[in-house]
């Protein structure tokens, strides 16, 4: 698809230069597109593979990330699921929308083409997108993402807190643990950390992003919320992940501290090359990340409190995907 108007609004080269190294808010026009109206969203949910439909609920205390739960739709229709979002405390994640819906893939690729034109030197790959549809009082707990993440807000209002890496709240070991799949993306949170945070009330037509690995959390503040969450990699982002993984792996198999997270120079380049090399050696290669899994503990039920009917016992599990 090709939209009649540019998807980005009021971006300048000076503004775009801050995108990769600051907590950054900018404007867009995605929310004006008909493809995000209620009836189109219901059609999208209906045609989206259930295996890639994340259904979650949660509590209202940002400290209690253990209350994040994975659920299932049962026999509900797409329209009933959308009604549950309106009436309850339900968070729908339509994962991998680019893989399943050609119209949305074209939109996201067009968006990235505009981003690369607006940001000289930016080259992205491994692009992906999830469409998030959530209840008026839903929250997303404090967590971090491994790729570069951008949240394009479309409907409703939400408050976002991002915690700068320079505050030292999140340790290098924690980032390593998330990257290698040993830790969940949801992390322990203390309310007093909010004094370090940059917070922003996000309106439809705004996008927020932050430097890679920046912890953040979200609270919906009004109306059904709809956002497009995109992720991508750059050469620098891939090196950053590899440096953290190399530090962790080489501490396990070699003498030495291996703590530096510098990206530039011959030493980081050599460290990344060495990691790529040992991945080809069965006896030295790090284990493949498995990923944290949540058990499915509830079914969406329009007659239950918050439209959530808890199961008596844990059943199957699935892989969560966040902002």
Kindly describe this structure.
The chain is an alpha+beta fold and 323 residues long. The protein folds into 2 domains: 8-170 and 184-234 and 297-316, Jelly Rolls (Sandwich), CATH 2.60.120.650; 237-278, no CATH class. Helix content is 26%, strand content 28%. It contains 8 helices and 14 strands. It is globular. The model is unreliable at 314-321 (pLDDT under 50).
Our measurement of the CA-to-CA distance between the termini, rounded to an integer number of angstroms, reads: 25 Å
Shape: globular
Q: How is the main sheet built?
A: 14 strands, mixed
Mean pLDDT: 90
In the CATH hierarchy, what is the architecture of the largest domain at level 2?
A: Sandwich
Q: Can you tell me the CATH class of the largest domain?
A: Mainly Beta
Q: Kindly provide the radius of gyration, computed on alpha-carbon positions and rounded to a whole number of angstroms.
A: 20 Å
Class based on secondary structure composition and strand pairing: alpha+beta
Q: What's the β-strand tally?
A: 14
Helix content: 25-40%
- How many individual helices? 8
Strand content: 25-35%
CATH-assigned fold name of the largest domain: Jelly Rolls
- The total domain count is 2
**CATH homologous superfamily heading of the largest domain:** Cupin
What quaternary form is this? single chain
Name the helix and strand elements from N-terminus to C-terminus, one letter apiece.
EHEHEEHEHHEEEHEEEHHEEE
Low-confidence stretches: 314-321
